[in-house]
Amino acid sequence: MSNSKQQQEQINIELDETIAEGIYSNLAIINHSSSEFVLDFVSIMPGIPKAKVKSRIVLTPQHAKRLLTAIGENIHRFELAHGEIKEAEQAQIPLNFGPPGQA
């Protein structure tokens, strides 16, 4: 492939300073419809009964599948370099998205 063709196919991506700081999340809630996947990232803190969605990403099903593959490949490479990621015992997190239903 020629140098000029490679330059034409490159994507210039800009990363804003605020976005580069990132957002901490220890819970992801995933929903989907026939046309999109919605990933809500939440930060739940001990002793605080209410948590807010910190970031929401909306993806097409095709992009969601590509993301799954990319994350899997990166986890595999990470574990080759650093050893197996051990899952901590999952604490039961109550998810209250509003008042309880009443009959």
Q: Can you describe what's shown?
A:
This protein is extended. 32% of the residues lie in helices and 18% in strands. The protein has a three-stranded antiparallel beta sheet. The chain has 103 residues and is an alpha+beta fold. The chain starts with a helix and ends in a 21-residue tail after the last helix.
Q: Gist?
A:
It contains 3 helices and 3 strands. It has 103 residues and is an alpha+beta fold.
Any chance you could write out the topology, listing elements then pairs?
Layout: H1 3-9, H2 17-20, E1 27-32, E2 37-42, E3 53-59, H3 61-82
Antiparallel strand pairs: 1-2, 2-3
- Classify the helix fraction into a percent range: 25-40%
Number of strands: 3
Q: Beta-sheet strand percentage?
A: 15-25%
Q: What is the makeup of the main sheet?
A: 3 strands, antiparallel
Please state the CA-atom Rg, rounded to the nearest Å.
Answer: 19 Å
Which structural category fits the helices and strands? alpha+beta
- What is the rounded distance between the termini? 67 Å
Q: Compute the average pLDDT.
A: 87
Strand order of the largest sheet: 1-2-3
Give the number of helices.
3
Order of helices and strands: HHEEEH
Detail the poorly predicted runs. none
> How does the overall form come out from the CA principal axes?
extended
